[in-house]
Amino acid sequence: MKHYLAGKARSLEDALAVMEARLADMGFTLAQYNWLNPVPGVWSVHVKAVQCPALFANGKGICREAALASAYGEFLERLLTGYFYGDYALPCEQLAYAFVPNETIRTPEEAWRRLPA
After folding, report:
1. Phi, psi (5° rounding) for residue 21?
2. Residue 82 has pLDDT above 70, yes or no
3. Quick one: which of 72, 88, 90, 87 has its CA closest to 16?
4. Domain boundaries along the sequence of the chain
5. pLDDT confidence of 7, banded at 50, 70, 90?
6. Contact yes or no for 34/87 (Cβ under 8 A)
7. Contact call for residues 6 and 18 (beta carbons, < 8 A)
8. Neighbouring residues of 19: CB distance < 8 A, sequence distance ≥ 6
9. Which CATH architecture does the domain made up of 12-89 adopt?
10. What is the mean pLDDT of the chain?
11. pLDDT by residue (tens digit) across 33-63?
């Protein structure tokens, strides 16, 4: 039986399959830890990368599948935004900002220029 949430295009199971495939493409396998169900309709889970347990995320939802999809989504968000590596400084010559969608690289000096009037 597939679980659907209002406003979502895919079932939770399909979303999980897509996220697991994308993570596998990047070389990540996630392990599930610390499932909690303190009251009916409230679930939470912690997931960690098997390859590097310091990379983790938490998920919450109204059922097990929703909590797991939330955790996978948070893990992907942290990975893709660089959150996992925020405590590490890049050498100055590598420090730059990329702005999407054109992905133009800007140095710190350029990033603070005023826009033309």
Report:
1. -65, -45
2. yes
3. 72
4. 12-89
5. confident
6. no
7. no
8. 69, 72, 73, 76
9. 2-Layer Sandwich (3.30)
10. 82
11. 999 998 999 999 999 999 999 999 999 999 9
